[in-house]
Predict the structure.
Amino acid sequence: MPTQLNRPIASLQINSAHRSKLMKNGYSTAADIQAVSVEELARDLGISLEDANAISAVAQTQPQISSHINADSVELPATQRTQLVIAGSQTAAELLKVPASATALSTGNKTIDELLDGGVIRGSLLEISGVPGSGRSAVTRSILTSAVREGHEILIIGGLSTSIVKILSLLVYL
């Protein structure tokens, strides 16, 4: 689990347009936001000081996630234990309300990220195809690098072409 300082921008509960601007301007973690003044953040993103203050506040907020809860220590009747909500948890219905860009991994290409509504959705299946020289390997490398840096597992299905083997060997050193 990421620490507070290296929480990815995608995990912050902020406006999706602001999230996209942060990513496009090289911000990738909460620490990146905390490292600059509110004025500098507003200038970098082209937003108001009020919006920059709100983003900065969210980046400094500690997530309310309990790392351990023993259901047996909670004094509730057995029928009510299933209704226990852990602070920081989300229901499936709430997750469906999260915009796609909030959970997206950058492709490293602004235009492709915009076409994909913020990037590649974590946990999704993506087929990358094109003629030789179209940039398939570069996009694949960028997506895999984003996933590895955020601590995600990667599953590649398909033939291991020379370019994929080369990309995977480069990821070992991240």
User: Anything to note?
Assistant: Residues 136-149 form the longest helix (14 residues). The beta strands are 104-105, 120-121.
